[in-house]
Design brief:
This protein has ten helices and two strands; from the N terminus they run ααββαααααααα. With 265 residues, it is mostly helical. The longest helix has 32 residues. A two-stranded antiparallel ribbon has the order 1-2. α1 packs across α5 and α9 packs antiparallel against α10.
Length: 265
């Protein structure tokens, strides 16, 4: 009898935790869409970028400069990657810094919501936003003649793992930011150099620079989207392994340094 009661209790706790996670996902989605200006530019900015590249390179054929791809076949995955970085890393770190300084995180910590459920809700929200970004970018590319991906399972499965590794990095960087005013500068000074040396906007043909950037998170992320989206290959396990390693680093930093209370000035 006690065993049945224990199973029933565990099941009730599990359902309660799932309900809390779903509540947090709804909260993140509602707060996102209730700021229409932020939501609008979250989706419009990458579309404007890819439209600019489509206007510049529409009709261009394949080239060795783009590793045997056309310019648009190269840029659709890399712009998709930078849009995911924006939603799952940059915005996440900035939002957490603002919420901490405004005391929102402190109030959340005082609720029954477990810390893991809060961050799981953030992850689900970031994934939803980034999926919309990727679909829009791939759709714009298709309008300009870029073939649609053929390895959808590799794209969906691998992309989920890639996004999960960006969340700890965003939380880890947020834990190092002292105040909300400094958040955009700190986030961008980390991201911008990596974006450029990782071949997001221009292919990099330096073996040394590619080896260096290949050990950092942005280039493996670019390459892991280039495979399913343009080269019609499966999951890039080597690149995914680098992202998992950086996700582990971000997790260690976040666990050891993340604070729910505002930092004293």
């Amino acid at each position: 009898m006690s065993r049945v009661s224990g199973v029933s209790t565990a099941s009730a706790v599990w359902r309660h935790d799932l309900a809390l996670v779903w509540h947090q996902v709804r909260y993140e989605q509602l707060s996102f869409w209730r700021n229409p200006q932020s939501a609008f530019f979250t989706f419009v900015f990458p579309i404007v970028i890819i439209l600019a590249f489509c206007a510049l390179f529409h009709g261009a054929g394949t080239s060795a400069y783009f590793y045997g791809l056309s310019a648009l076949q190269y840029y659709v995955p890399t712009i998709a990657a930078v849009s995911v970085l924006g939603s799952c890393y940059s915005q996440l770190a900035i939002v957490l810094s603002i919420r901490r300084q405004n005391g929102i995180l402190k109030r959340i910590r005082a609720t029954p919501l477990p810390a893991w459920a809060y961050f799981l809700g953030l992850l689900a929200h970031c994934v939803m936003v980034s999926v919309v970004d990727v679909v829009l970018i791939v759709g714009v590319g298709a309008l300009f003649g870029v073939p649609l991906p053929t390895h959808w399972l590799a794209l969906a499965g691998g992309a989920g793992g890639r996004r999960r590794q960006l969340l700890p990095l965003g939380v880890g960087v947020a834990s190092l930011i002292r105040n909300a005013e400094a958040a955009p500068a700190v986030v961008q000074i980390v991201l911008f150099p990596l974006v450029f040396i990782s071949g997001t906007y221009l292919p990099i043909h330096s073996d040394l620079l590619n080896r260096v950037s290949g050990a950092l998170p942005v280039r493996p992320f670019n390459q892991s989207l280039l495979g399913p989206l343009s080269q019609h290959t499966g999951i890039e396990w080597g690149n995914l392994g680098v992202l998992f390693a950086w996700g582990a680093v971000g997790t260690v930093v976040a666990v050891s340094r993340f604070r729910w209370d505002p930092r004293p000035e």
